[in-house]
Design goal:
With 283 residues, the chain is mainly beta. Helices cover 8% and strands 49% of the residues.
């Protein structure tokens, strides 16, 4: 299993501990598209625990299993000076039930995602402004036959998002509270796995994303996320996504996130709810 392989590689590598300045868990986990943040969406935080003049980095592997579909993602992100982040993710979407029922020419879809995130202003904790970051992602669908057959207009595209994050110390009945809000400009169908644009609409849309997390102590966090999705293809609806997650951060080198994800309708199949598991190594 890719999660186990990547975790084993990370442990064998003996990655050095990061600096002591940033609080545990303030680097977040890794989103499905490779940027630092939550599970289904990025936050304004940057990968790793590097501070001014220091590098930080993450390697990760994620699996989402709904029964009808499976999504596997692996990737890496690196940040310098807690200012700029570069990321790469490879997504593989197993079509499972749909491929068997419709006898599709491909039984999986793959995509590469290159990301850039720049912290523009503020700080997660210590500034009057929340931490604000601008992100850009370029996505390239590697298996475009099925997306083209269902109406997708293009196999690659770029999108942007503006993220704001704030950690409020003692903000939830004495527990630390993390709030994040994003505004995304995108025309990606199912993250881009079903191409970009469609026969219903071929233009970018402004999409809302948000998350709330409570840090129960320095090692455990629970929270919820919401991600609005476009609806560009007439052959099937595209539902907004949400999840309920538990994050475990035993130290600054390891993070594990387990979530229950509600993904709604995906490519004509309804009720795609399932389990999300992500393992991340940081240094």
């Amino acid at each position: 299993m890719r999660l186990a392989c990547l975790l084993g590689l990370y442990l064998c590598a003996g990655l050095a501990s990061a600096g002591e300045g940033r609080l545990l868990a303030t680097g977040g986990a890794t989103s499905l598209e490779g940027a630092a943040g939550g599970g289904i969406m990025p936050w304004a935080v940057l990968a790793g625990y590097g501070e001014r003049g220091e590098w930080g980095a993450d390697v990760f592997a994620t699996r989402v299993e709904t029964g009808d579909y499976r999504l596997d993602v692996t990737g890496v992100a690196a940040a310098y000076g807690n200012r700029i982040e570069l990321s790469y993710a490879r997504q593989r979407f197993d079509l499972g039930t749909l491929a068997r029922d419709l006898r599709l020419p491909d039984n999986s879809l793959s995509q590469d995602v290159l990301g850039l995130k720049l912290r523009l202003a503020g700080d997660l904790i210590y500034d009057r402004l929340p931490q604000i970051a601008l992100g850009l992602q370029h996505k390239r669908q590697r298996d475009f036959l099925v997306p083209s057959l269902v109406g997708a207009e293009r196999r690659e595209d770029s999108e942007g998002y503006l993220a704001a994050s704030r950690l409020i110390l003692g903000g939830a009945f004495g527990y630390n509270l993390l709030l994040n809000a994003n505004l995304r400009y995108s025309r990606a169908n199912e993250l881009g796995l079903l191409g970009f644009g469609g026969d219903r609409r071929d233009r970018h849309s402004w999409l809302k994303e948000g998350s709330v997390a409570v840090l129960l102590d320095q090692h455990w966090a629970v929270g919820i996320e919401y991600r609005e999705k476009p609806d560009n293809l007439s052959f099937a609806g595209e539902s907004d996504w949400a999840d309920l997650f538990v994050g475990y951060f035993p130290n600054k080198n390891l993070a594990v996130v387990l979530a229950y994800a509600r993904l709604g309708e995906i490519a004509t199949l309804d009720n795609q709810d399932g389990v999300y598991l992500s393992v991340q190594g940081s240094f």
